[in-house]
Amino acid sequence: MAGILFIISAPSGSGKSTLVNQLRSLVTDLEFSVSYTTRVPRGSEQQGREYHYISRSRFEEMIGQGEFLEWARVFGNYYGTASRSLTDAQTAGKDLLLDIDVQGAAQVREKVPDAVSIFVLPPNPLVLATRLRNRSRAEGSVLEDEIDGRLAKARVEIQNYSQYRYILVNDILDHAVEALTAIVIAERARRHGAPQDPETARMIQLAERCRQPNATDRLYPVLSSFGLLDMHATHA
Ligand code: ADP
Ligand code: 5GP
Fold it and tell me: Read out DSSP for 78-98?
């Protein structure tokens, strides 16, 4: 039986990698697709672990040979998911998680309409700027221009939230990790049938609260803080 395809997107610095790393230590049988990128490794990142780091010409060759399920240009670099990641997971009957941007998510949704998409948001721009700055400091250098660029892009990316099935505001890390885990458990229960234990029932309820139409109480304050509420509240 084909596994579930999970897509997770977030503005850079929202804490998506942190959440995904914790999720991977908490749930079994979830494969993670290691993307290809032309950006250089950051901090302690390792070839083949966070990304496959390749040259621009090699990336363009892979595009030409149709090797990508999706690809996009993000912050001036190419990023892409190899089609192979999905076919391998499907052959093995495993669930697969893609950590990709909003452009890539749109391409995957076209090809795999039943993919489960999750959008992670920071609580507000101030917290996002602090997280971006802390991460840059930990990696050795804080470039204020780069942080300003990422904040501006965050504001644009957030406007795509309505294309995602689940909304997750990453405020208190433990709560966000639990909600993300709950989404995986709930979607598996939906696909394969749920065991009737109270803990699974609690997780299904928690996931339900993150479904986009049920998440407005947490979503609207975030939209408001980014100056986006008027634009979007009327569509809800
Ligand atoms: P992303 O993958 O979305 O770009 P990261 O996972 O690298 O973001 O997180 C950006 C920074 O914010 C990191 O320094 C991380 O430790 C920190 N961080 C992530 N989630 C939280 C949280 N809930 N509370 C406080 N700091 C967080
Ligand atoms: P970073 O450079 O911070 O690791 O990632 C920058 C952005 O690129 C993030 O939004 C991340 O989700 C996105 N990204 C990472 N891999 C892929 C990919 O394979 N395809 C697409 N479209 N985006 C990706």
Answer: EEEEEHHHHHHHHHHT-EEEE
Taking only the tens place, the pLDDT of each residue in 129-152 is 999 999 888 877 778 888 899 899
Domain span holding position 25: 5-33+96-235
Q: Say yes or no: CB of residue 203 within 6 Å of ligand 2.
A: no
Tell me, yes or no, whether 185 lies in a domain. yes
Three-state SS at 46:
coil
Distance CA 204, CA 182 (A): 6
In this structure, is residue 39 part of a structural domain?
A: no
- CA angle 5–8–13, rounded 5-degree value: 160
| Farthest-apart Cα atoms in the chain, separation | 53
Q: Is residue 208, in this structure, part of any structural domain at all?
A: yes
- 205: region left, alpha or beta (phi > 0 left; psi from -120 to 50 alpha): alpha
Are 73 and 58 in contact by the 8 Å Cβ rule? The answer is no
More confident residue, 230 or 117: 117
136 CB within 6 A, ligand 2: no
Tell me, what CATH number does 207's domain have? 3.40.50.300
Could you give the number of structural domains in the chain? 1
* pTM for the whole structure: 0.94
Residue 211 lies in a domain: yes
8, 9, 16, 18: residue to mutate for ligand 1 pocket, most atoms within 8 A of CB: 18
Helix ranges (H only) for the chain are: 16-26, 56-64, 83-92, 102-111, 125-139, 144-158, 173-192, 198-210, 216-225, 229-233
